[in-house]
Amino acid sequence: MEYVSYTPPPSVVAGLVGLLILYVLCVGPYRDRFVGSAVVPRGRQIAFVSGLVVMLIALATPLDTIGDQYLFTVHMLQHLLLTLVVAPLLLGGSPAWLLRQILAATRLTGFVRWARHPIVAFFTFNLVFSLAHVPAFYEATLSNEVLHAAEHLVFVGTAMLMWMPVLSPAPDIAARYPPLGQVLYLFLQTVPASLLGALLASTASTYYPTYVLAPRITSLSALEDQQLGGLLMWVGSGLYFLIATGVVFFISASREEAANRRPLGVH
Question: Is residue 16 exposed (0-12), middle (13-18) or buried (19+ Cβ within 10 Å)?
Answer without folding.
Answer: middle
